[in-house]
Fold this sequence. Notes:
Shape: globular
CATH architecture of the largest domain: 3-Layer(aba) Sandwich
Structural class: alpha/beta
Strand content: 15-25%
Number of helices: 10
Radius of gyration: 20 Å
Mean pLDDT: 87
Distance between the termini: 33 Å
Order of helices and strands: EEEHEEHHHHHHEHEHEEH
Helix content: 40-55%
Largest sheet: 6 strands, mixed
Low-confidence stretches: none
CATH class of the largest domain: Alpha Beta
Amino acid sequence: MAxxxxxDLGKDIAGDPLLRGISFKLERRDRMTLSGRNGAGxxxxxxxxSGEASIDVGELVLAKGTKIALHDQRPPRDLGLxxxxxxxxxxxxxxxxxxxxxxxxxxxxxxxHDETTLxxxxxxxARLEHAGGYGWRERALSALHGLGxxxxxxxxxxxxxxxxxxxxxxxHGRALAGDPDxxxxxxxxxxxxxxxxxxxxxxxxxxxxxxxxxAHDRWFLEAVGTAVLEMEAGRTRYFKGTWTAxxxxxx
Length: 251
């Protein structure tokens, strides 16, 4: 089943067309890389898919309940958040369901066992399971460990003390925290050391999600990509196959 279907998408900037004719379909475990020169609209397309930028032409259809996460190559320092707090903003839906369950459990402990309360509790449990289950916090922490953050001292540090590389890794952790169905990555390899890069490559090739990414690291693209969207002069062409196969076709 498709996670996302794009049909003839287009985007205008200041009244002039930037993108036209973008069409593709992605299912879980599809990993589409975007190829194009600087200014071709790659980051703009990611933001269109995330909902942060409007779509001026065409139609974007997402599977019901699709969770979208965007890794930004310029994560913010000035939010006044710790790493732990920042990562949890990537799982707002899961946090909200947990809070709802806690409130209902408190009500039931006070004697509320009516049909409505029990029904709401069962429904909230089902939503939590569908959205990632009770183990999502452990998975989020595991991702941070894989990205090089080792202990509570890191988790409780403020973002404004982070280096550029640490911010990049924090943004990855935030994007992965909510178990997204559609993962959007803008220059995910920037500032990563070898260990973090290897961990990210392994995670992306095993994640049960559709992935769209922009990167300049050819070796990384060859390792993770299963399709290429070629972007040139405002037009696009979808190629089903690895980055290596696409490069051979271009030769």
